[in-house]
Amino acid sequence: MKQMIIHGGKPLKGDVWIGGAKNSTVALIPASILSRTPVTLEGVPRIADVDNLMDLLSEMDVKCDFQETTLKINPEDIHMSPLPAGKIKSLRASYYFMGALLGRFGKAVVGFPGGDDIGPRPIDQHIKGFEALGATVKNQNDQIIITAPTEGLKGAVIDLAMPSVGATINIMLAAVTAKGQTIINNAAKEPEIIDLATFLNNMGAVVRGTGTETIRIEGVARLESKAPHTIIPDRIEAGTYIALAATVGNGIRIHNIIEEHLDSYLAKVEEMGVVTKVDEDSLYVYPAGDLKMVQVRTDPYPGFATDLQQPMTPLLLSAKSGEGIISDTIYPKRVGHIPELQKMGADIQAEDNFILIHPTAELKGAHVSAGEIRAGACLMIAGLMAKGETVISNAGNILRGYDRVEEKIKKLGGDISVIDAN
Ligand code: EPU
Asked: With a 6 A CB cut-off, is 92 part of the ligand 1 pocket?
């Protein structure tokens, strides 16, 4: 088990570079098996989720070569193989192999997905989409078996009950090689979905309308990668460093951002009184003065991202007065960080589906546990703010999603280390 050890209370200063978006990367890697030729991804974050996806690819004899931030994936010798539980459970996004295998081979046998403990995460909309394309879906021994009819998948109109990121992506992966047109209504609009469409279209797919609520896909017989694809910057990592900079920063410049992807988040941070300045694709966060509490409600993109409610919480705790309220409409039970913050002296409570936050003059170091990626990011920032030593157990969850986080924070002057502990 990994432990993150932080000695807090030191101001951080300098420059930090944001990596490629985790939630794009974890879709692009499974999507690579749709290509008949080798794929090159640039700007790939060094995160544990990527290692786990490469292990899954190697089970199908897909070769990977990962140097610096360039990942080469060669699917030329791929064979269709069941992907049983085990590794599949190590990350939620392994369920993208369902759509990708279905699109490539007309069959997918994939263990039930795992992922963060953030409350119930059904996949009924993914299955509804596969079935609409003509596939049969069976659950057997903790595995999902999806089979296309002998004549292949056929395009369909699919109305999602909610704009699910995962279902939109999985349906896109299956539909790009289906016969005829697929229309996804009430599709998710996240930038990572546009990134995936760019990647697929550059391989010969015909996907239009991503970023709006209606996506139209014309099926094609074959996809071939011809040029490297550069992954968009991780807006959630950027938002996390913005919260860090506004709490313990003494002037931090965050490079490789797309400001528009952060609009809702920056609006809230600025409403609190944090001052930032954008210069092309970087953003400077000035040392914060007295901050005001705000209310936050998470929503699908372009709303305030659920993945940023926890990283922003330490910033709310640092406000001088008032009561902050967070309501997470996507994952109302994403509250695992609260008892851990209470151990650090935070005045924060979960009531019904609201999180209530009061100004906390000082956090103190404590032994806490990172139940999931974003809870871990929240505790890491709290640890950097706190007096004394904070030990975060289950820190592997932070490394699942934050690119070279120890190195980046050390470079800013933070006293942080990640160790192997029993
Ligand atoms: N939902 C259903 N049925 C479905 C699919 C979703 O009821 O078939 C519900 C979910 O329970 C949830 C809502 O719809 O309440 C939205 O879920 P969505 O499918 O959009 O989420 P996801 O695809 O499972 C991705 C990200 C999450 C992020 C959410 C919301 C990846 C790999 N994961 O999850 O990221 O929180 O979208 O934006 O892209 C993270 O990075 O920390 C993380 C958890």
From this structure: yes
330 is in an annotated binding site: yes
- Can 2-19+233-420 and 22-230 be said to share one CATH topology? yes
- Bridging pattern class, strands 389-393 and 2-7: antiparallel
Confidence of residue 115 (pLDDT cuts 50, 70, 90): low
Rounded mean pLDDT, 389-417: 97
- Binned at pLDDT 50, 70 and 90, residue 44 comes out as very high
CATH fit for domain 2-19+233-420, picks 3.40.50.150, 3.65.10.10, 3.40.50.620, 3.40.710.10: 3.65.10.10
Instruction: Give the confidence band of 120 by pLDDT, cuts at 50, 70, 90.
Output: low
DSSP label of 35: B
Residues noted as catalytic: 116
Does residue 279 have a known ligand-binding role? Answer: no
Percentage of the residues of the chain whose pLDDT score is greater than 70: 98
What is the DSSP-derived secondary structure letter of residue 306? G
Q: Is there a binding annotation on residue 169?
A: no
User: Where is average pLDDT lowest: 139-153, 294-308, 314-328, 371-385?
Assistant: 139-153
CA distance 313 to 348: 9
Mean pLDDT calculated for residue range 170-182: 98
Is 23's C-beta closer than 6 angstroms to any atom of ligand 1?
yes
Q: How far apart are CA 16 and CA 28, in angstroms?
A: 25
Question: Does the beta carbon of 116 lie inside 6 Å of ligand 1?
Answer: yes
Domain 22-230: assigned CATH number: 3.65.10.10
Q: Cβ(307) to ligand 1 under 6 A?
A: yes
Residue nearest to atom 7 of ligand 1 (CA): 122
**Residue holding tokens 């089970």?**
59
Q: What confidence category does residue 117 fall into, taking pLDDT thresholds of 50, 70 and 90?
A: low
Tell me which of 91, 160, 164, 309 to substitute to probe ligand 1's pocket, judged by most ligand atoms within 8 Å of the beta carbon. 164
pTM score of the predicted model: 0.97
Nearest protein CA to atom 17 of ligand 1, as residue: 164
DSSP annotation string for 83-151: B-TGGGGG-GGGGHHHHHHHHHHSEEEEEPP----SS----HHHHHHHHHTT-EEEEETTEEEEE--TT
- For the chain, domain boundaries: 2-19+233-420, 22-230
